[in-house]
Amino acid sequence: MHARKAITGILVNVCRLVISLTFIFSGYVKAIDPLGTQYKLQDYLNVVQLSQYVPDYLTLGASVLLGGLEFCLGVFILFAIHRRLMSRLVLLFMAIMTPLTLWLAVANPIKDCGCFGDAIILTNWETFYKNVVLLAAAIVLCVKPLMMPRFISRTNQWIVITYTIIFILFSSTRSLYTLPQFDFRPYHIGADIKKGMEIPEGAKGPEFETTFILEKNGQRKEFTLENYPDSTWTFIDSKTVQISEGYVPPIHDFFIQTTDGSEDLTDSVLSRRGYTFLLISPHLEYADDSNFGEIDQIYEYCQSHGYPFYGLTASTDEGIQHWRDITGAEYPFYLTDETTLKTVIRSNPGLLLLKDGVVIGKWSHNDLPQLSYQTGKLETTEYGHLPEDSVTGKISKILLWYILPLLLLTFADRTWKFTQWLKEKEHSNRIYQLFKRKKNEKENCSR
C-alpha cells in the first residue's frame, strides 16, 4: 500500500515538473515577444477568415494575456499554489489546445503553430504529440492534486502570485516598448545576413515535379517528363509541385529592390564594407511617427559621415509618400517582403545597423541611438561595436530579479514553517508531559 502511494506520488510530481517547466518556457518566450505572438494569432484568424473583424489591439492584448497565462500557470503548478484550481485550469487549457493542434496537424493551414515562439520550431504533428503528453499529465494532476507538496505556505503564496504577474506583464511591456530581451530569429545581433542566405555545398535542394496535361482525340491525360508522349498529343496545361523541401537556409526571403522593381540592391547592400543603416517599417501607414525627428537626425548624421541610410518597407507608393508628407523624410525607400520585415525587427519603425553585412545593432523607435552632427565616427561610439550584453548576462539578470527573490522567499517561508512546526511539537510535548504527570499523580493517590 505504501509502495503504491509512493509510486503515485512520484508520477504526480513528474507530471507536475513536466507541465510547469513546459508552461514556464512556452509562456515566457511568448511574453517577451508579444508582437511575434500577435502575428501568429493573426495567421490563425486569416485561416478562418476572421482577421478583418478583429482589430489589432485585441490580438495584441490576447498575445500578452496568452503568454502571461501560460507562464503563471507553470509557476503556480511548480509551487503548488491553489493546487485544485490550477490543475483544473491546466486541464482545461490542454483540452482546448490538443484538438486545435490536431486540426493543425491534419489540415496543415500553418506550418508552425508558434507554441514556443521562435525559440523552438516544431512541426504540427510534433506539437500535437507534445500536447497529448501534456494532456495526459494534466489529467494525472487533476485526479491527484493534493499529492503535490507545497513549496510555499498558503499564508505567503499571495507574494508569489503577485510578483509573478507583475514580472511577466513588465517583461511584455518592456519588450513592446523596446525590443524582445532574447532574439531567436535569424536576424539577431551578430548574424551575418548574407552568410545566412547561403546554401552549403552538397546540400540537397528542394525537388519539384512538373506534370503536363495533354489531349488527344478528345481524351486528356497527365504525363511527366519520364513518360512524355509523341507530338500527336496537344499541350493543354502544366503544373509544378514541390515534392520535397530539401535544405532551406535560415534567411531565404530577404531582398532589397527599388519601388518599381527595376533594380535589386540586395547584394550591393550586404556586401558593402563598413556601416549601413536600415530603417525597417513593414507598413508605413501604421508606423509610429512620434520619434521621426530622431530618425531624421540619424539620417543627417549618416549624410555628414558618409554612411548609407535606406528605408525598407512593403508599403505602396502612396504609403511612402504619406510618411514623407508627415515626417519630411528625405531618405530613399526600397521594397522588401512584409513578413521578412516583421521578422527582422519587432518595431514599426525599427532601426538596424550593419557592419560588413553583419547585424551589430537593433533599436526600437522608442530607444533610438543618440547620434547627431556633433557625434564622431561610429567606430568611436558604443553603437559601432557589437554590444557586450550577452545571452549569459541577460539570463543572469532574470536570475537576479525573479528567480533569486523567489528562492529566498521559499527558503524563508520553509524556515518559518519549520520553526512553527517545532513550536507546535514542543507545545504538544508539554501537554503530553502534563497529562502524563497528572495521570501518575492519580495512580499514586489511588494506591
TrEMBL record:
<protein>
    <submittedName>
        <fullName>Triosephosphate isomerase</fullName>
    </submittedName>
</protein>
<keyword id="KW-0812">Transmembrane</keyword>
<feature type="transmembrane region" description="Helical">
    <location>
        <begin position="57"/>
        <end position="82"/>
    </location>
</feature>
<feature type="domain" description="Methylamine utilisation protein MauE">
    <location>
        <begin position="10"/>
        <end position="142"/>
    </location>
</feature>
<feature type="transmembrane region" description="Helical">
    <location>
        <begin position="158"/>
        <end position="177"/>
    </location>
</feature>
<dbReference type="GO" id="GO:0030416">
    <property type="term" value="P:methylamine metabolic process"/>
</dbReference>
<keyword id="KW-0472">Membrane</keyword>
<feature type="transmembrane region" description="Helical">
    <location>
        <begin position="7"/>
        <end position="29"/>
    </location>
</feature>
<dbReference type="InterPro" id="IPR009908">
    <property type="entry name" value="Methylamine_util_MauE"/>
</dbReference>
<feature type="transmembrane region" description="Helical">
    <location>
        <begin position="89"/>
        <end position="108"/>
    </location>
</feature>
<dbReference type="GO" id="GO:0016853">
    <property type="term" value="F:isomerase activity"/>
</dbReference>
<keyword id="KW-0413">Isomerase</keyword>
<dbReference type="GO" id="GO:0016020">
    <property type="term" value="C:membrane"/>
</dbReference>
<feature type="transmembrane region" description="Helical">
    <location>
        <begin position="128"/>
        <end position="146"/>
    </location>
</feature>
<keyword id="KW-1133">Transmembrane helix</keyword>
<dbReference type="Pfam" id="PF07291">
    <property type="entry name" value="MauE"/>
</dbReference>
